[in-house]
Amino acid sequence: MLKIATFALRGFLVIFGAIVLGLSVSLAKQQALGSPPPETSFYSFTGAFGLIVSAVAILAIFVDKIPQIGVVAADALASIFYLAGAIALTLALKTVHSCTANDDLTRLLRYNNKLLNGGCQHVKGGLFCPNAGSGDDQKNIDSYTSGRCQQVQADYVFGYIAFVFGVASAVVTLLNYRRGGRTTAYV
């Protein structure tokens, strides 16, 4: 039973790691000015790290030379990274009340959010964000920042889910290790 659970958890962790990495890299690539926000960069690292840990853990299912306690430690570390990154994105997006609301305050909050505007510069006493449009171009601001807002939300939601699956994977692997078994399944 634990072997099936291990395979299923590992499969989901690969999927969630790929999603987190893909969304974070997509957000980083859309940065027009300056470097991407540190939250986005860290979450890109987290997704890549999660994929590497998942690959090693899947390999450990078939290769007895990889210590199970090392896999548990790597799962725990990846889970901590997923949680830390998801919390960082959540807090950075905290000022934005809604990703789809059209009122002026919400538009302004999305326009001024560093995760959503794609990089800004100060021009003549005002803030100009080339990807998000100017203050006069409300339609472009709404479509760009609203889409990125939903992308950031999806990114941190998958991070929280990956955290839960990572903890579950570490627990299942640890339980199997403590009872003296391996997760090896030569089918």
Main-sheet strand order equals 1-2
What is the number of helical segments per DSSP (H or I, 4+ residues)? Answer: 5
Number of strands: 2
SSE topology string: HHHHEEH
Query: How would you describe the shape?
Result: elongated
Report helical residue fraction: 55-70%
Largest sheet: 2 strands, antiparallel
Instruction: Kindly estimate the percentage of residues that lie in beta strands according to DSSP.
Output: under 5%
The termini sit apart by 14 Å
Broad structural category: mainly alpha
Multimeric organization: single chain
User: Stretches where pLDDT falls below 50 for ≥5 residues?
Assistant: 183-187
Mean pLDDT: 84
**Whole-number radius of gyration?**
20 Å
Produce a short descriptive summary:
The protein has five helices and two strands. The protein has helices at residues 2-29, 38-62, 68-92, 104-112, 138-178; strands at residues 121-123, 126-128. The model is unreliable at 183-187 (pLDDT under 50).
Write a structural description:
It is built from 5 helices and 2 strands. The chain has 187 residues and is mainly α. It has a two-stranded antiparallel sheet with strand order 1-2. Strand 1 (121-123) and strand 2 form a beta hairpin. Helix 2 (38-62) packs antiparallel against helix 3 (68-92). The longest helix is centred in the last third of the chain and has 41 residues, at 138-178. The two termini are 14 Å apart.
Write the layout of secondary structure elements.
Layout: H1 2-29, H2 38-62, H3 68-92, H4 104-112, E1 121-123, E2 126-128, H5 138-178
Antiparallel strand pairs: 1-2
Helix pairs in contact: 1-2, 1-5, 2-3, 3-5
